[in-house]
Each structure stands twice: as structure tokens, then as C-alpha cells.
């Protein structure tokens, strides 16, 4: 009976400690909001200072305006948006690499928006910190005590892991998209060569291929055609394709089309040669990956199967010697 009472007392004490911890976190959050809302911390920005003098100017077209961000449930998104943007700016000032982020966003087929990416990193860090807090709660329940150093360390590790994880996901998305584009490139190049051989011009061949094919590379070619229709010449629009991607094969593809359009050289042969080069590069890449996989396959054989085999071979003799002794 005394053991049951002691256990109940311990559980009640742990529960009250968690209530006190939650109350402290809420109190700190409220104080942080109060301090952030003080007049000294609400300095007007340049837009706020210029807005009274620009009210009489005609409003820009709504077609050029960005869509409003989602407000979230109960308006919390609009309430927390300034703080998330401020934290994102702090993360960007610490990490840097804005040009690298823009480059990877373009490679991943996303609009170049560093501020949005930093805000996503802040949210990912918050999710990681909450995961670290939940892990600490499980440890506290299991050990029946509240380890403050573990709480602080796990929250910090979870936040940093969330920020780094969002950056890794962007890099992975860019790599996967480029791999899909490389897979589609030989077929698209041969279709362009067939269209050019049939008498189509460069623009007509691109339009026909974009109409008949679907994929990441086709979407990029559609964007090039849209830029060409908007007023840019075809070489400039294709150069934008090479700038948005980090693939040397596509860069050579664009250079070949630009040279063929500007100098009047045969375009079909250039496209066929480039498609063949990409297929050869893909074959070499597969061979290299196959060689790496063979090495990886040796790891379980050397470190798992071989020791077990040696043990089975030596164990009878060792046991017999032990019996002799």
C-alpha cells in the first residue's frame, strides 16, 4: 500500500512539474510578444514612410500582384507572419548563401523566393524543436524526472536539424528534377531532330515537341517559347533555360541550337549527336553506379557473413580443445 501511495505521489509530482513547465513556456511566449510589440521595437519601415506620399498614384494591375499568403486557422498565420519573416531574415543573415538558394530553387522548378524559403526553414526548425520537446517529455515520463539539460539540448538539436533538413530537401528536389530532365533529354532531342528534318523551323519544332511531350524538360521548353512570344528572341530564351539548370548536357544543347539558328548550320545532325552523347553519359553513369553498388554489396559479406562462417568453422575445434583441457 505504501508503494502504491509513493508511486501515485511521484506521478502527481511529475504532472504538476509539467504543468509548471507549460505555464512557464506560455509566460515566456507572452512576454516575448509584449516586448516585440513595444513602440521601440515597431520602427516604421521604408514602405510605411513612403506610403502616405504614394496614395495618389494609380494602383498597379492585379495581374502583377502576388497571391496573398494563407492566413491559417483563426488568423494565426497573419499574426505570426511578421515574426516568422523576422526570424527568417535572421537565419539568412547567419547562414548566408542567398544566391545558392535562388539557384537551387530554379533548378527545382520553383520560383526564386529566398524569403519564403527562409520562412519555411524557420517553420521546419520550430517543428524540429517541438519534436525534441516531445522526446524530452517521453524521457521525463520514463525516468520520472525533468532533465533540463536534455530538454535544452534536444530542442536546440531539433531546431537545427529542421533548418538543415529543409535545405537538404531543396537540394534533393533540384537533383531529382535534373535527373528526370536528363532521362527525358535524348527522346526530346531526337523528336526535335525529326521535326527539323521534316522541314520545320526551330520554333515550329519546339512547339510541336512541347505539344506532343510531357515532363520537366518539356515544361522548360514551353517556358522558353513563352519568353520568345513575349518579345525575347529564341537564343536569349534558350539561354535562360541553360541558366536555370545546372546540367552541362542542356548547356551544350542550347549552345548547339543557338549556333545553328544564328549561323544556319544543320540542326538535325547536331541534335542527334547530342542525344547520342547524353545516352553515352547515362550508360557511363550506370556503370559507375553499378561498380559502387558492388562495393557496397561486399560490406555485409565481409563484416557479417564471413565472421559467422569463420566462427562456425572454428567453434567445434575450440570446444573440443576446451573439453580436453
From TrEMBL:
Q: Which UniProt keywords apply?
A: Cell membrane, Membrane, Transmembrane, Transmembrane helix
**What broad class describes the main subcellular location of this protein?**
membrane
Q: Which residues form the Type II secretion system protein GspF domain?
A: 190-313
Specify whether Cytoplasm is a keyword of the entry: no
Q: List membrane-spanning regions.
A: 16-40, 122-142, 148-170, 295-315
Question: What's the name of the protein?
Answer: Pilus assembly protein TadB
What Pfam families does the record tag this protein with? Answer: T2SSF
| InterPro entries assigned | T2SS_GspF_dom
The cross-references to PANTHER family, in alphabetical order and at most eight, read: INTEGRAL MEMBRANE PROTEIN-RELATED (PTHR35007), PILUS ASSEMBLE PROTEIN (PTHR35007:SF2)
The protein's location, in the record's own words, is:
Cell membrane
Superkingdom, natural source: Bacteria
Of the GO CC terms on this record, one is:
plasma membrane
Q: How does it sit in the membrane?
A: Multi-pass membrane protein
Amino acid at each position: 500500500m505504501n508503494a502504491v501511495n509513493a508511486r501515485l505521489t511521484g506521478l502527481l509530482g511529475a504532472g504538476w512539474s509539467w504543468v509548471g513547465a507549460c505555464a512557464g513556456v506560455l509566460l515566456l511566449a507572452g512576454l516575448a510578444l509584449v516586448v516585440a510589440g513595444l513602440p521601440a521595437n515597431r520602427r516604421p519601415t521604408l514602405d510605411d514612410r513612403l506610403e502616405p506620399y504614394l496614395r495618389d498614384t494609380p494602383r498597379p494591375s492585379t495581374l502583377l500582384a502576388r497571391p496573398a499568403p494563407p492566413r491559417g486557422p483563426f488568423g494565426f498565420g497573419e499574426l505570426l507572419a511578421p515574426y516568422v519573416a523576422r526570424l527568417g531574415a535572421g537565419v539568412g543573415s547567419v547562414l548566408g548563401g542567398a544566391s545558392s538558394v535562388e539557384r537551387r530553387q530554379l533548378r527545382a522548378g520553383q520560383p526564386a523566393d529566398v524569403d519564403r524559403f527562409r520562412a519555411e526553414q524557420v517553420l521546419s526548425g520550430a517543428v524540429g524543436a517541438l519534436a525534441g520537446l516531445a522526446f524530452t517529455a517521453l524521457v521525463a515520463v520514463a525516468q520520472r524526472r525533468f532533465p533540463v539539460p536534455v530538454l535544452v539540448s534536444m530542442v536546440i538539436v531539433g531546431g537545427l536539424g529542421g533548418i538543415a533538413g529543409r535545405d537538404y530537401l531543396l537540394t534533393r528536389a533540384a537533383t531529382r528534377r535534373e535527373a528526370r530532365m536528363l532521362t527525358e533529354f535524348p527522346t526530346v532531342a531526337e523528336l526535335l531532330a525529326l521535326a527539323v528534318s521534316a522541314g520545320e523551323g526551330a520554333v515550329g519544332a519546339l512547339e510541336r515537341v512541347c505539344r506532343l511531350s510531357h515532363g520537366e524538360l518539356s515544361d522548360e521548353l514551353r517556358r522558353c517559347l513563352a519568353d520568345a512570344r513575349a518579345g525575347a528572341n529564341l537564343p536569349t530564351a534558350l539561354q535562360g533555360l541553360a541558366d536555370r539548370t545546372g546540367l552541362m548536357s542542356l548547356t551544350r544543347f542550347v549552345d548547339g541550337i543557338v549556333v545553328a539558328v544564328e549561323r544556319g548550320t544543320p540542326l538535325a545532325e547536331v541534335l542527334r549527336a547530342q542525344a547520342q552523347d547524353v545516352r553515352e553519359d547515362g550508360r557511363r553513369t550506370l556503370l559507375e553506379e553499378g561498380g559502387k553498388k558492388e562495393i557496397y554489396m561486399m560490406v555485409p559479406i565481409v563484416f557479417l557473413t564471413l565472421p559467422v562462417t569463420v566462427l562456425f568453422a572454428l567453434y567445434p575445434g575450440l570446444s573440443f580443445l576446451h573439453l580436453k583441457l
